[in-house]
Structure to design on (487 residues):
């Protein structure tokens, strides 16, 4: 029974440990976020760099490109290979020691150390190395470009959240003011001092203000949700963001479109990556042309072998034995005796064979490609097409960058002009609402007239906030293009 309980308990414990470890892994980011009472724009971007999957994927691709580059450099070095083989023979075979036929069971081994290097191949290896170096640099730029895109998106989400929160504060203040009016009118209506329609109109305005609060709260939640998705952290409606509107002077942008474009085209990773890919395509063409040229290589090796059939004949003695020859002496044939040596077969030791059978070889070879099924020629044609593609992409990247900058300037100028007009409108509607509030308190105007004045003032307050943050967004984007400080 104890064993049964142990068998049940162990899997449960392992399962609990697994779940706990997974929970801790999921809570890592939460702990990381919890250390910030108020998140700044810089902190949001830094957390995004660490957590965003697109940035991580770009980093993996850059690391792969680095490995390919290291391999391309290693291809210029000589190769070095060792080989060992052992074989068991049965029946008729070749004695590797004497190179003669034998008919017995034996074992043989061979050992070799070989090396080779390409001396010349139309500089193909060198151009491949340069190509992979450029690919690695382009990969690093792609990683930085992923960070740049994330930075822009986080700025957009961050400012959207700040704008929504400020609009929510205004909407809540407006709601509180309307609620006080409703409370006051309710008391006066109970006393019969006002028409019931006045109270109904104000309650309708209270409902409108509540809808505005709900709408702006939803906008804030969406902005925070977008921000947390970009940072790849769990959503939290209680996330607090540092305000960055203080000290912002709303004025026409200092630099021109051409100045911003020149600075952006020189520093943005997007443009650098496109240019590096064009250079890489050019090196690829040169490398393929080298593959179509003769290849000159140097090679050499060190060899030795062993055979269990290898032996030497050891002289053990000599004896006189009669031969088939004879001599005639006095007409009598006398047999001629000769000496015959006796030998004993003695196996050669393993170490002796390894030492005595050492031999070396060195050579030079020339390989001339003649046809190869037109593979290299077609690869070269494809490489030329690829070069045209990346050149077109590089040109398109610059055109789109300039278009984006022009569009930002157009929007910035519109936002600036709108903001100035809204400030003037805010002042006018503010005075109108102040006068309407006094007249309404004295019963000089109806509730409908008061609500109209209030709605005009409330609406322009929210519009001012939207225009201000739109201007800040455009400014941040143009500053980012020029590598100016964002915080």
């Amino acid at each position: 029974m104890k064993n049964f309980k142990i068998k049940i308990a162990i899997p449960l414990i392992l399962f609990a440990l697994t779940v706990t470890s997974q929970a801790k892994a999921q809570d890592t980011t939460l702990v990381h976020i919890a250390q910030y009472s108020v998140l700044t724009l810089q902190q949001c971007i830094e957390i995004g760099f660490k957590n965003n999957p697109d940035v991580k994927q770009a980093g993996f691709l850059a690391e792969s490109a680095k490995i390919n580059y290291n391999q391309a450099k290693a291809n210029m070095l000589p190769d070095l290979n060792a080989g060992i083989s052992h074989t068991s023979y049965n029946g008729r075979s070749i004695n590797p020691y004497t190179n003669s036929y034998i008919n017995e069971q034996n074992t043989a081994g061979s050992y070799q150390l070989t090396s080779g290097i390409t001396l010349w191949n139309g500089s193909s290896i060198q151009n491949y190395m340069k190509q992979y170096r450029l690919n690695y640099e382009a990969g690093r730029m792609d990683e930085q470009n992923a960070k740049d895109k994330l930075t822009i998106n986080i700025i957009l989400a961050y400012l959207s959240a700040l704008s929504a929160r400020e609009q929510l504060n205004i909407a809540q203040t407006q709601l509180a003011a309307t609620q006080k009016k409703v409370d006051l009118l309710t008391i006066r209506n109970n006393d019969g001092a006002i028409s019931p329609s006045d109270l109904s109109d104000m309650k309708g305005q209270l409902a409108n203000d509540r809808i505005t609060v709900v709408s702006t709260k939803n906008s804030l939640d969406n902005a925070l949700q977008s921000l947390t998705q970009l940072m790849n952290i769990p959503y939290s409606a209680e996330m607090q963001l540092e305000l960055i509107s203080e000290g912002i002077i709303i004025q026409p942008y200092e630099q021109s479109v051409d100045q911003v474009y020149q600075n952006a085209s020189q520093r943005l990773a997007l443009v650098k990556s496109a240019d590096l890919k064009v250079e890489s395509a050019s090196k690829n063409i040169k490398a393929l042309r080298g593959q179509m040229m003769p290849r000159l290589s140097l090679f050499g090796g060190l060899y030795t072998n062993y055979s269990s059939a290898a032996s030497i004949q050891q002289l053990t003695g000599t004896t006189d034995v009669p031969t088939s020859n004879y001599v005639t002496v006095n007409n009598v044939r006398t047999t001629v005796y000769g000496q015959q040596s006796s030998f004993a077969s003695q196996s050669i030791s393993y170490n002796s064979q390894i030492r005595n059978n050492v031999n070396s070889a060195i050579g030079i070879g020339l390989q001339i490609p003649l046809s190869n099924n037109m593979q290299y020629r077609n690869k070269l044609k494809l490489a030329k097409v690829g070069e045209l593609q990346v050149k077109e992409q590089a040109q398109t990247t610059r055109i789109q960058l300039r278009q984006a900058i022009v569009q930002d300037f157009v929007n910035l100028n519109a936002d600036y002009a709108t903001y100035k007009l809204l400030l003037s409108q805010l002042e006018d509607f503010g005075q109108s609402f102040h006068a309407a509030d006094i007249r309404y308190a004295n019963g000089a105007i109806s509730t409908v007239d008061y609500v109209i004045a209030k709605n005009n003032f409330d609406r322009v307050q929210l519009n001012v906030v939207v225009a201000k943050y739109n201007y800040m967004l455009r400014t941040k984007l143009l500053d980012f293009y020029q590598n100016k400080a964002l915080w």
